[in-house]
């Protein structure tokens, strides 16, 4: 079976509690079940879906809302910091590439340590003579 990685997407979400009630524009209404405690529902693309205390209500990319159980939410989402973060696999690959470039003598550890890998590579492959040549003309 082919594996897929979830695309990075920033969503809005809040953790719902019964004290928040219904009729607030997100949680549609309270559903009374006979012989059991009250349940609440949120309107989704597939209709009304019951929610429980502690469920997260997520607003998706197109404004759609859907509930998510707390354990699934914690495993799938992280607070938005405004800065893109590298996933662990990508960070490990980047470290491996850096180590290979240093080992092969393409960049030095000092260059990478001082300015970062991106800066070191840019200046390695965009040499000064080109800039000096332009200045002479």
Q: What this model shows, in words?
A:
It contains 5 helices and 6 strands, in the order ββββββααααα. 7% of the residues are buried. It has 2 domains: 12-76, no CATH class; 88-136, no CATH class. The strands form 2 sheets. A 3-stranded antiparallel β-sheet has the order 1-5-6. 35% of the residues lie in helices and 20% in strands. The protein has helices at residues 70-76, 88-103, 109-115, 117-125, 128-136, and strands at 12-15, 27-31, 39-44, 47-51, 56-59, 65-68. A hairpin with a 5-residue loop joins strand 5 and strand 6 (65-68). The protein is α+β, with helices and mostly antiparallel strands and 137 residues long.
Proportion of β residues?
15-25%
Order of helices and strands: EEEEEEHHHHH
Query: What's the total count of β strands?
Result: 6
Distance between the termini: 59 Å
The overall pLDDT average reads 77
Q: What is the share of helical residues?
A: 25-40%
Radius of gyration: 26 Å
Low-confidence stretches: none
Structural class: alpha+beta
Count of folded domains:
2
Assign an overall shape.
Answer: rod-shaped
Mind summarizing the main beta sheet? 3 strands, antiparallel
Strand order of the largest sheet: 1-5-6
Given the structure, what is the number of helices? 5
